[in-house]
Write a structure and sequence with these properties.
heterodimer; A: alpha/beta; Rossmann fold; 3 domains; 6-stranded parallel sheet; 23 helices; about 35% helix; B: alpha+beta; Alpha-Beta Plaits; 5-stranded antiparallel sheet; 5 helices
Chain lengths: ~575, ~170
């Protein structure tokens, strides 16, 4: 079938199952927009900034498990996608970015709105393509989607010069993708699985260290089976919240810099870490040399480069988490049957239960006192149903959200972990809502983050994509303020934002959203109930929270996880076994 | 142990692939000592020979990262004892008066060719093991080297197997 390159592009996207693209047009990408008028069923969500389009594609991908698609024109449009691409690379989010490029005869000529976007995005994409021949558009789209969604997922960019989009070509759908240099190992080696289970059977203090890859692999059911079969305690990292239900007694919650005492200390004192699609990130391990000093390590990951990168491994298993965890569960069941049951680990489980009792997350909300951000999160959670998708930006509010929201299901928590991209929440929430229109989407955001991408509220209301944004407004870049308070002698510098500027209620209204303000703890419930009752437009709640509140527990950057600070009083519990609480 | 390692990297002959490989080394903080690229026995595939000076452990990380590049097909780290490694060098040496004869004598000993002659210089073409070229360069430098160009190392493993079978064999072990 003869058609233009642009028509072939859209038809190929359709062939890949794309229903929606987030984007902004421009000179070089205009040919793509013509078929969108009446020849393509694909929905185009017109964003207000390309960064918003990119994060929306990420939110869509997180919420659906499908590949998110964003689109921008050449030059500045394309460079505005760099941050979401880098974000998607760090958090292994499958997205495809399509960029217009200046016509091939002027590529390299410093033409108007020209940027070498394949060169610029090389380090922040899993792969990228510059298509110079219209006959290769369809094949390239297929390769891009294949690369984005398989193996360790990630962002792929396709750069399309305008003349290539305008040229006539023949549409041919290739039956298969041929990439001789790309063959991810998905099946875990059975011999390694057997070795791993031997270690699990012997372990007295095992911990399943679950990373975001378990969610990407849709391996939550397999994980549940493995954990419950072996009665193995689970920590879920920031990226893995919801991979294992918080309500289960085996769930210890989030480890890491702002993780809870039990999760952090369980890993520290463990004799076997079973790392499942997690990557020993510095925010989890603290000072690497002091991390879990007595633990043997089983590391399951689809990316061989992650195995042994930060921590030496006793049993490496390369493969898809779904496949490997299922095999581990089968093998463990068999071994436990042979051994006459689950190995007795009563002292360990009792120890964990005691820590949980003694060191829960805590804050102090006085009636009539300053409004605490943690309280806002707890109440937002209280009134939300189980299908509510929670999204956050980056900073204190992100940590409160991860700490105080109870996560029960995968793909219901979306945030920027690896790159730590402020401004992620609003556009990602919008993308999530497009992907899951029947579910309520709540973005918990900071006032600093919100101002970076708030313009997408306009998109949400013109495109009827309603979601709720709860701003934990403390008038500061709160996490930086916290570090200045703790590590820079309270010398605050460049962190004051002013909670009154802008007026978030008026700003919401200006964007066609509903704006609500909450200044006291007594007003919290009413505002949340009202916000949750509005479903025809977006809502912004301006929670005026205590600017002096800090995120605890905290392992200071570069410190050992043994030196976890539990609260503002700077209490340093000891991990010396002789002094640790004894059950 | 920090040491020189020779990697053969089989890549698809696509635009940008050199940038991807070189960029990966730079982004992860590794210095490339030399890099040579050229076509191979198979159309559409190029072979890069990369010499890096790194510890054993980071080298494993860099080869794993290289393997993740979509255009990279195979990687082989050469065992120095069982690889043929060669390099080509061109050197323009000052040669006025009676030193010309001495330079020509050196070239004869090293079995290398003189490929260009002027009234004041001789240009020497030498190929061989990197150590041999280094020794020659040192000898010639006494007379003054005007300019020097080296290709960087190329390597093939000894024996009857190619890079693809060899890597498969290693993986199986």
């Amino acid at each position: 079938m003869k058609m233009s390159g642009a028509d072939a592009l859209l038809k190929a996207l359709e062939g890949e199952g794309v229903e929606v693209v987030f984007g902004i047009p421009g000179g070089a990408s205009m040919p793509i927009y013509d078929p969108l008028v009446d020849r393509s069923p694909i929905r185009h969500v017109l964003c207000r900034h390309e960064q918003g389009a990119g994060h929306a594609a990420e939110g869509y991908a997180w919420a659906t498990g499908k590949v998110g698609v964003c689109m921008a024109t050449s030059g500045p449009g394309a460079t505005n996608l760099v941050t979401p691409l880098a974000d998607a690379k760090m958090d292994s989010v499958p997205i495809v970015a399509i960029t217009g490029q200046v016509p091939t005869p002027v590529v390299g000529n410093d033409a108007f709105q020209e940027a070498d976007i394949t060169g610029i995005t090389m380090p922040v994409t899993k792969h990228n393509f510059l298509v110079k021949d219209p006959a290769q558009i369809v094949e390239t789209v297929r390769e891009a989607f294949h690369i984005a969604r398989t193996g360790r997922p990630g962002p792929v960019l396709i750069d399309l010069p305008k003349d290539v989009l305008l040229a006539e070509t023949t549409y041919v759908w290739p039956d298969s993708v041929t990439l001789p240099g790309y063959k991810p190992t998905t099946k875990g080696h059975q011999r390694q699985v057997v070795e791993a289970v031997k270690l699990i059977m012997k372990a007295k203090k095992p911990v399943l260290y679950v990373g975001g890859g378990v969610i990407k692999a849709d391996a939550d059911k397999e994980l549940f089976k493995l954990a419950t079969t072996g009665q193995l305690p689970v920590v879920t990292t920031l990226m893995a919240r919801g991979a294992f239900p918080d309500s289960n007694e085996l769930c210890l919650g989030m480890p890491g810099m702002h993780g809870n005492y039990t999760a952090v200390t369980a890993m520290q004192q463990s004799d076997l870490l079973v790392a499942l699609a997690s990557r020993f990130d510095d925010r989890v391990t603290g000072k690497l040399a002091g991390f879990a000093p007595n633990a043997k390590v089983i590391h399951v990951d689809i990316d061989p480069a992650e195995i042994g990168k930060n921590r030496a491994v006793d049993v490496p298993i390369v493969g898809d988490a779904k496949d490997v965890i299922a095999k581990l569960a089968v093998e463990l069941t068999k071994r436990q049957e042979e051994a006459g049951g689950v190995p007795d680990r009563t002292p360990w489980l009792q120890q964990l239960a005691a820590w949980r009792q003694e060191f829960p997350y805590r804050y102090d909300q006085q009636p009539g006192g300053a409004l605490k951000p943690q309280y806002c999160v707890e109440r937002l959670n209280h009134f939300a149903d189980e299908d509510t998708i929670l999204v956050s930006g980056v900073g204190q509010h992100q940590m409160y959200a991860s700490q105080y929201w109870r996560f029960e299901k995968p793909r219901h928590w979306i945030n920027s972990g690896g790159l730590g991209t402020m401004g992620f929440a609003v556009p990602a929430a919008m993308g999530a809502k497009v992907g899951q229109p029947k579910k309520r989407v709540v973005a918990i955001d900071g006032d600093g983050c919100f101002q970076m991408t708030a313009q997408e509220l306009a998109t949400s209301n013109t495109e009827q994509i309603p979601f709720i944004t709860a701003i934990l407004n403390n008038g500061y870049l709160g996490m930086v303020r916290q570090w200045q308070e703790l590590f820079f002698d309270e010398r605050y510098s460049g962190v004051w934002l002013d909670p009154n500027v802008p007026d978030y209620v008026k700003l919401a209204e200006a964007y066609g959203a509903v704006g609500l303000r909450v200044e006291a703890p007594e007003e919290v419930d009413n505002a949340i109930e009202k916000a949750y009752s509005i479903t025809d437009r977006s809502v912004v709640i301006d929670f005026r929270v205590d600017p002096t509140e800090m995120v605890f527990p905290m392992v200071p950057s570069g410190a050992s996880n043994d030196d976890i600070i539990l609260g503002p009083e700077g209490l340093l519990p000891t991990n010396d076994p002789a002094e640790a609480p004894i059950v | 142990m920090s040491d020189f390692h020779t990697l053969s990297v089989l890549v698809e002959d696509r635009p940008g692939v050199l940038t991807r490989v070189a960029g990966l080394f730079a982004a992860r903080g590794y210095n490339i000592d030399s890099l040579a690229v050229g076509p191979t026995e198979t159309e559409g595939l190029s072979r890069m020979t990369i010499v890096v000076n790194v510890d054993e452990n980071p080298l494993e990380q860099v080869t794993k990262q290289l393997n993740k590049l979509v255009n990279v097909i195979k990687i082989l780290e050469h065992d120095p004892g069982s690889a043929v490694e060669r390099e080509l060098m061109l050197a323009k040496v000052k040669a006025v008066g009676d030193v010309r004869a001495r330079i020509m004598e050196i070239c004869e000993v090293f079995r290398v060719n003189i490929v260009d002659v002027t009234a004041s210089t001789l240009t020497v073409e030498a190929s061989g093991k990197p150590e041999k070229l280094e020794a020659l360069r040192e000898m010639l430098s006494e007379y003054g080297i005007v300019e020097l160009s080296r290709t960087g190392r190329v390597a093939l493993s000894r024996g009857d197997r190619g890079i693809r079978e060899r890597q498969a064999l290693r993986a199986a072990n």
